Amino acid sequence: DITNNQVQVITLCPTLAGQEVEQLVTFPVEQSIVNLPDVEEIRSISRFGLSVVTVVFKDEVDIYFARQLVNEKLKEAEEQIPEGVGTPELSPVSTGLGEVYQYILHPKKGSEDKYTAMDLRTMQDWIVARQLYGTPGIAEINSFGGLLKQYEVSVNPDRLRAMDVSISEIFSALETNNQNTGGAYIDKKPNAYFIRGVGLVNTLEDVGNIVVKNISGVPILVKDVAEVRFGNAIRYGALTYNGEVDAVGGIVMMLKGENSAKVVERIKEKIPTIQKSLPDDIVIEPYLDRTDLVGRAIDTVEKNLIEGALIVIFVLILFLGNLRAGLIVASAIPLSMLFALGMMRLFGVSANLMSLGAIDFGLIVDGSLIVVEATMHHLGLRKSNKRLTQGEMDEEVFDSARKIRTSAAFGEIIILIVYIPILTLVGIEGKMFTPMAQTVSFAIIGALILSFTYIPMMSALFLSKKPITKKNLSDKMMDFLNKVYQPLLEKAIRLKYVVIGSAVGLFAISLFLFSRMGGEFLPKLGEGDFAMHCILPQGTSLSQSLETSMQASRILKEFDEVKMVVGKTGAGEIPTDPMPPEATDLMVILKPQKEWKEKKSYDELSNEMMEKLESIPGVFFEANQPIQMRFNELMTGIRQDVAVKVFGENLDSLLVYANKVNAIVQTIPGATAPQVERVDGLPQINIDYDRARIANYGLKIQNINDIVSTAFAGK
């Protein structure tokens, strides 16, 4: 996990436009935390109804201490944020690798019309999520999609005017007529009777029967001026399944520092129990399961390690010409690995693709090979034809190992020195490559210790004590190679200037070719799934985004290699990924590659998908992978591989320069169509107040704002 050490501050302010969010919420939050110690970067996003401020701390700062520092400063920010606008909260203690298990909740075939989006969301919030909470290693369950159920009082303006009732009176009536209380107890021997005043509303009818005011002895009830019903909160995100239905899902976020495989295993243990709590025709179906990727990565490591070990053992036996000697040297491999794993456990280094995948068994057996080969050479120089006793064998092995121990040690130490610069790396590079250097160093240190202790002992015990009288296969092979090599060496010495000139020329050509080659920090890890980023023009409504993304999902589902397509539009309940309504992430879940009917690479399949998606006009698509996309966004604030940031104080000037950068980037070969982040042009309906008329009617701006906010957004 190479995510930087960050704390996110999220503020939901559903009635404010982007300008007010920046001015009234984001700016006070940023100002309050700007002087915190060990902060590397502060960045923010202000969108309609949402403010997200990301504070990046130095890696050595404990995450819980960092959260405590931020939380203390948020008290100052809350005092500067107007009352009722929103309350800043900290995001879950998770990272870019935290989304370990993502699932959807959908009806079985034939039951699609039986449940509404509100029913599914209620099941997600009150059955599935509640039972997943408390699982060790889980930081949060982020619900996505559906309609959040609410008790809704829909006011009729005509009735309000007719009965002379104001909205503030309805608010006051609802607040003061929905509460319980206690009255201590009455002591009546032999019992004590505890007193409860039960005034909470339980049904829609109870809400409708609340008295708003009394005119001449006639009560005016809520139901007289409003319709009481079940409604839903304004949503800023949605989830779709295979481009067919508006679905509901959840994202399980893992606690920072936990083991993803174990956390997902605990989740899977709970899922069958939760499934029994749901109706028979409702299914919990995972679409992104981290254990699949972990399993493939571990299989890759196992395959490479086993194949590497077998190749090394084969070469050892072949060139040593002695089965026992080859097996003695090869036995250092598992023992060195055991030593390395013990040290990894001690120093807290995780076993992953980077740390274990870099181990080279050829380096590990180097010292042991020198000791065994020296012993065999020493035994071959003996003139005696009699069998050695164990004491004589011990003496021979000790004598041969003592002579070459300095050479063997220096060989291993030189290899260790190569990894010292890697251990000094910091930041993302350090997080990625330091475990590799540590693991290889542990293995080599273990091999060095074994070459001076275990290998001589095994050689003395198990190497043949009989004199060597005839040539083996290895000797014959080396004789043949020497016959070929000897004349070539003599010829090279005679033509030394030609050989040196050719070598220098080839080196110069290689430098030229190297300078013309492309480069990247790391090859991409094939996650086995795609994440298609779908962006519509700014200001597109959520319903239009859903319609377009579902069309794209249906196109992608036509590919035989695709198992399912899940679209995430906008932001979830906890907006750790604060996408606007016009943006959608299409999670394209693929079948295992062995089940594909046509042989093609992931890149070829991705290109075919992008060609098909071009049939949808006016939409920008970008192919990525789920984890890679999340990493990019969390660490840099953008999803793409390369970003150009332009700083300044005037938004109009920034937009001009951003468009100039855009024009330059378009001319660069290999770059996809760049996207300029929009800072203006969002369609709005502005209500400009006439202060003279407001004064004539004796009104206040706050009263009018309350009415506007309540009428369109609810309160």
Give the biggest beta sheet.
9 strands, antiparallel
Total domains, how many? 4
* Count of distinct strands: 19
| Strand coverage percent | 15-25%
CATH homology superfamily name of the largest domain = Multidrug efflux transporter AcrB transmembrane domain
CATH topology of the largest domain: Multidrug efflux transporter AcrB transmembrane fold
Helix content: 40-55%
Q: What top-tier CATH class of the largest domain fits best? A: Mainly Alpha
What shape does the CA trace take?
A: elongated
N-to-C terminal Cα separation, in Å?
41 Å
Give a description of the structure:
By secondary structure, this protein is of the alpha+beta class. It folds into 4 domains: 1-91, Alpha-Beta Plaits; 150-232, Multidrug efflux transporter AcrB TolC docking domain, DN and DC subdomains; 294-513, Multidrug efflux transporter AcrB transmembrane fold, CATH 1.20.1640.10; 529-635, Multidrug efflux transporter AcrB pore domain (Alpha-Beta Plaits). The chain has 26 helices and 19 strands. The strands form 5 sheets. Strands 5, 6, 13, 14, 15, 16, 17, 18 and 19 form a 9-stranded antiparallel sheet that branches. Strands 2-3-1-4 form a 4-stranded antiparallel sheet. A two-stranded antiparallel ribbon has the order 7-12. A hairpin with a 2-residue loop joins strand 8 (181-188) and strand 9. Helix 10 runs antiparallel to helix 18, helix 11 crosses helix 17 and helix 14 packs parallel to helix 17 (427-452). The protein is elongated and about 130 Å long.
